[in-house]
Amino acid sequence: MTKFIIILMAIVVTLTSAFAPVSTTTHLPSTTTLTTPSFTLPPLSMAEDMTWGGEDDDDKEYPPSKVLGPIMSKMPSGVLGGLSILCLLACVVSVTQSSVLQQEAGAMSTGSWVKWYFILGSFGGPFAWGLHVASWIQRQNGM
């Protein structure tokens, strides 16, 4: 117990010293020489403009394919739709099989109905939603 208290006190002291006030004034030497850096700064890499739509009537009401990233922007709409259906099926199968296992006697008290592959399959629902949106974007962009 004393080791635990010592460790706890050490953590408290460490945390309080991290927030201790520090002097904002520094002592600069009286003779300073200004030197210019001998390296050149790399050009700034700005993010691409991913906006769409606007005040004009001819602007699109859907984003460009590049918002899907480097891999999914090159996939056709049918492939993304098929992956969406597969993910949705995995989610539906996982939920239904998990509910079947819940009906067994004593399953709720022991937790035997919780299976890792059903938990993994339940993530198919959000993936199906995202993939169907990506499929819609690709279809709107003619892919």
Features:
single chain; 143 residues; 6 helices; mainly alpha; flat
Helix content: 40-55%
**CA distance, first residue to last residue:** 66 Å
Structural class: mainly alpha
Gyration radius from CA atoms, angstroms: 29 Å
Number of helices: 6
Mean of residue pLDDT values: 81
Largest sheet: none
Bulk shape = flat
The helix/strand order is HHHHHH
Describe what you observe in this structure.
By secondary structure, this protein is mostly helical. It has a domain at 62-143. Helices cover 52% and strands 0% of the residues. It contains 6 helices and no strands. Helix 3 (77-102) runs antiparallel to helix 6. The model has no long low-confidence stretch (mean pLDDT 81).
Itemize the secondary structure elements and their pairings.
Elements: H1 2-18, H2 69-72, H3 77-102, H4 107-110, H5 116-122, H6 124-140
Helix pairs in contact: 3-5, 3-6
Summarize the structure.
The protein contains six helices and no strands. It has helices at residues 2-18, 69-72, 77-102, 107-110, 116-122, 124-140. The N and C termini lie far apart (66 Å).
